[in-house]
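Posting for a labmate who doesn't have an account.
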Amino acid sequence: MMAKNQIKLYNIGYRKEEQQQLPIVIPLVIYHGKTSWSIPTSLGANLNGYEELPKDVKVHVPDFDYIIYDLSGFSDEEIKGKVQTRILLTLLRDIFTKDIDELIHSILKCIHYLLELEDKQTGIEFLETMIRYVFSAANNLTKRDMEVIIKEIETTFPKGSEITMTLADIFREEGIQKGIEIGEANALAKTAIKQLTAKFGCLPEEMKEDIKKLDVITLELILSNIFNYTHLDDVKKIIS
């Protein structure tokens, strides 16, 4: 009944737009991971058991090839288009695949791209978006790296320096808070392992590793119920 209603609703929307045909959709994947793309580029090859289906069933299962753009192989010369597009693709290409010095070089290059924008307000807004992305995605940036970026902005794009300084302070505070949370989780994990070992004896190494990966809330839950557990399976239910 639900499927029938869904089809009915779709047909109403379809007639409302007075469209006689569906639009053409070309599937496209833009990839910027740490390693090269290795997944098959056809939908059927990614469907479990698709090749074993009978022909009369296959005709009812969608299968198509999608276009893959693996940005890691693009050179600066191949990245073209408007300023915002070049900045976006450059950062996506380099944020995970370059060492820190090369990444800094790319970031500084993108700052210079902003000078090509005639509307400086648009440049400031895009700069804010760019720096937010860089500071959050590139978690290996040091204080010195951030200072280099800020100095370049102050020299090249001074109107955006105030925003950058504010964002730098925000992300620095978030980094400190994250460090505090990690430290607290590590301490709670050690306590949980110690108390569970005292109650049940030696714990499996796999369980110890799973406990070390838990967040503060889950670890506090385990510790608050430590005396209620009758078997390690009770703990495994919480961990999983």
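Reply:
Got it, the structure tokens are right above this. Residues 179-239 form one domain.
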